[in-house]
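Notes for week 9. Today we move from apo structures to complexes. The key idea is that a small molecule is not decoration. When we ask for a structure prediction with zinc ion present, the ligand SMILES becomes part of the input, just like the chain. The input block below holds both the sequence and the ligand string. Read it once before you look at the output, and try to guess where the molecule might sit.
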Amino acid sequence: MTTNPLLTPSTLPYGLPDFPAISDEHFLPAFRAGMAEHRTELKAIATDPADATFENTFRAFERSGALLRWVQMVFSNLVAADGTDARQAIDEEVSPELAAHADSIYLDGALYQRLAGVDVTADPRLDAEDRRLAEETLKTFRLLGADLDPDSQRRLAVLNERLAVLTAQYGRRMVAENTNSAVWFATAGELAGLSEQDLASAAAAAHAAGHPGGFLLTLSMFTSQPWLAVLEDRDSRRRVHEAAWRRGSTKGEHYTLDLAAEQASLRAEKAGLLGYTSWAEYALVDRTAPDLAAVRELLDRVVPAATANARRERDTVESLAGHPIEPWDWPFYAARVEREQYHVDATALRSYFELDRVLQDGVFAAAGALYGLSFRERPDLNGYAPGVRIWEVLVEQGAEASGSAGLGLFVGDFFTRPTKSGGAWMNSFREASADLSERPVVSNNLNIPQPADGEPALLTVDQVNTLFHEFGHALHGLLSSARYASLSGTAVPRDFVEFPSQVNEMWMYWPQIVTRYARHVESGEVIDQELLEAIEASSLWGEGHRTTEYLGAALLDLAWHSLAPGSTVSDPLAFEAEHLMAAGLDPELVPPRYRSSYFKHIFAGGYAAGYYSYLWSEMLDADTVEWFRANGGMTRQNGERFRAELLSRGNTRDPMESYRAFRGQDADPEHLLRRRGLLG
Ligand SMILES: [Zn+2]
């Protein structure tokens, strides 16, 4: 029996997992060893004969389960980025065991009593972060049912295990269905409008999928596929759109709607057990939004203005097209309006956005100018799959020291692969914790189509934006100065976590950055000022449509998670259509960004009753952008303030307190409405 590399601490820099040594058969034994070790540690805490102190309760609890946390972090990264069938099967097997393990902790009355018995306000040696750890830990226990009677606790444990199974199944079926739904075309003629590069990628994709020839267009997770903006053939567009729209809603092995409906019902029941009227009401307890009414108020304020804008946009496009516009026509004609009225050609623009240049001279350069970071690629360190790249992140030292010090690692996995989950995300292999002397190892995943051999990867404007966005999350993890891992970096409420990543998007068009990275891939010429101004002028075009797509998804999420305990949904598609129409959104006009059958955020991720968060945190984002602009923009001093008061704090204090400390006041929602073109 060879040793399991997951059971011994990594000897690699920053504790990077030794990927080549890890194979799939190591995971289940490591998970089970991690759970067993954790149980032993918790038992020792609960039965410690000594007087309960912060040290032997909250701090010991925080430090317990280190092995399990480590295995979980490695596995969650791999199953999302390279979720082979074997790993999906492990996920389905271990998810209910992990759910039961969590319940054995949070429903353990002796442990809860031991923690709740410590008076943290009475100990003068404890500081604000220690007290925050105690408060947050107890809140988690309460929200997970520590206060319930034994019968309710038993039912809760059953629900949690079933929910874990459903979530893992939904994720697996969705990835398989997305791969299966790629659209095959026999001839290049049907794909007129595609660039040479994309056509070559599509031919390679067809070959890789086992087709004897032809071209395969793979789908992104959204409803509206990027291909639709360029495909000239109307019927080809319709085929791509319909394949995307139907994903997961046909009964069969990849049907996801039964899993979605069951999850929604069980979450409602769980919320009821815990004393709430719906899952949404329960979830909001741990958010920065004060309550559900406040969230609905923001959405209700935006819906009429956004849909009115979307209708006006459609009128513009219909007069150009000379025929009624179907959802699969919208991106094509919207791009034509951009070209003809704003002189922005999205396809031609891609020649200015070569991945490596955008990354090094754009994303990394911005982090250098703001936070004093530099990046050194470490080809000596192995990633978990071909194409994964690793950088060491260095931070410049203060005036008294010279040079740079190592801060952590950044793992970049930018290209799509058939086993990768859709969309883009940030994750951690290791979270910063001063108490554990651990430094962060964070990853960013995107789904940029793999360019054909030897070709450069040219990005769309949206992909450039995503690169800056995800790196904003990475900075939140990298720049953490938290003592405790559970309060570190991105461990903030769901409706706050998007805020730093959204702010990082502002640097994409910042003059000193965009003129560095946006250079023509062949000539090396810097993008010209007129084109940049045209992009800026065109940025509000299509905003009504984009906002409405988003609102559709946000309102669908709230509809599913506002069910009262005891409710079931027998016809999920009818439920979906009915709730969209009732909210004033017409899916025939503007389909939601995600549909119930492929809504990973809420049915295979942590965003249940949380998709509103993007708009909610954009209030803070738009307000922060105003602050940077009014205070000299991209300076080291401004970056330092944002780092010190906000990024480094994580959840070590109330995030809204961090916001006010950074900004000096509360956010003004007008900035958000103006940015989205929603002010009267
Ligand atoms: Zn994000």
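Residues 670 and 679 are 8 Å apart (CA to CA).
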